[in-house]
TrEMBL record:
Record's keyword terms, sorted: ATP-binding, Membrane, Nucleotide-binding, Transmembrane, Transmembrane helix, Transport
Localization, UniProt: Membrane
GO molecular function, one term: ABC-type transporter activity
Organism field: Talaromyces stipitatus (strain ATCC 10500 / CBS 375.48 / QM 6759 / NRRL 1006) (Penicillium stipitatum)
Official protein name in the record: ATP-binding cassette transporter, putative
GO CC entries: membrane
Keyword Nucleus attached: no
Organism phylogeny: Eukaryota, Fungi, Dikarya, Ascomycota, Pezizomycotina
PROSITE patterns linked: ABC_TM1F (PS50929)
Membrane-related topology note: Multi-pass membrane protein
Every ABC transmembrane type-1 domain range: 1-218
Length: 315
């Protein structure tokens, strides 16, 4: 029952993280200009980075809970095999220390891999959105080779990440494999030196069960360290996107009843509150995407009335 409640709260927490990050990225993207969006970075952040954060943070609480479980298991194991209880602890600590350099390399390796995925996704989506033009110009073979080359680069870049993943799995399984054998061997040697007789079957089975209680949380702990480092790397990519994005400039002029009259002469448009008069009027207006760009529309004269559906199309 307690395990069910724990996983319910954990999955609820992960769902909140996913929804919060996606909403934040989506809101930030809406506030950006079209020229600032490039390389399908938004799609990569929402799909790849957010999902890896949610996946890797499933065992977040195991980082501190595993330490408590290991302490209790060592205390119980000491009651059965005396000083031999330090053998699985030494093996486990060695595995954890060996995991540290592997974990520190996970973040950068994953970041480079995701950047290659982002480049490939940007190229593929751009090609698919202009498929008619690609076929007319006969660029299918050229773009196919380009996308294939990007895929090869992605696979080559991910090789380092996958090698680190193999090392993580191998090192995290060392305590599970070696601890029972080493502990019972040392205990047998101690019993032989002390002339304490052979190991009883009950002692052996109890020791194996306690070693399992000791090594299982250590296995989760060793796998949770690099997983959370990967999640931190994804968080850093989202933070970088949030800091480097430039929001659209917001005009400081507010159209209210108080300042409409005083800004009437300086503004290129007029706002009217009358029912039969135009709602917005443009006279000799110039419209551009930003203050640094050339005006897309010049000398615009337009009146928009209430209750009228107006569609403006461009070639």
């Amino acid at each position: 029952m307690s395990k069910a409640v724990y996983w319910r709260q954990t999955l609820r927490f992960l769902t909140m993280i996913r929804s919060g990050l996606i909403s934040m990225i989506y809101t930030q993207t809406l506030d950006m200009s079209a020229t600032a969006l490039k390389d399908s970075e938004t799609i990569t952040l929402i799909s790849t980075d957010v999902e890896r954060i949610v996946t890797n943070m499933r065992n977040l609480h195991e980082l501190w809970a595993s330490i408590l479980e290991v302490g209790v298991a060592i205390w119980l194991l000491e009651r059965e095999v005396w000083i031999a209880c330090i053998i699985p602890l030494v093996i486990s600590l060695g595995s954890v220390l060996a995991m540290v350099p592997v974990s520190t390399r996970f973040g950068q390796a994953q970041k480079r891999w995701i950047e290659c995925v982002q480049d490939q996704l940007a190229m593929t989506s751009s090609m698919v959105s202009r498929m008619k033009t690609v076929q007319i110009l006969g660029l299918s073979d050229i773009l196919f080779k380009t996308v294939s080359r990007l895929r090869e680069v992605e696979v080559q870049t991910s090789a380092r990440f996958r090698k680190l993943l193999i090392w993580q799995i191998a090192l995290s399984n060392i305590p599970v494999t070696l601890a029972p054998f080493a502990t019972l061997t040392i205990y047998a040697v101690i019993a032989l030196v002390r002339q304490d007789g052979s190991i009883l079957s009950t002692t052996a089975f109890t020791t194996l069960a306690l070693i399992s209680i000791l090594t299982d949380p250590l296995l989760v702990f060793c796998q949770a360290i690099p997983a959370n480092i990967q999640a931190i790397a994804c968080f850093s990519r989202i933070e970088k996107y949030y800091k480097n994005s430039t929001p659209l400039p917001v005009s400081s002029t507010t159209l209210s009843d108080d300042n409409i009259e005083e800004n009437k002469e300086s503004q290129p448009y007029k706002v009217s509150q009358a029912v039969n008069s135009p709602l917005v009027s443009f006279k000799n207006a110039e419209i551009s995407r930003s203050s640094e760009k050339e005006p897309a529309l010049k000398n615009l004269n337009l009146s928009i009335c209430r209750g009228v559906v107006m569609i403006i199309g461009g070639g």
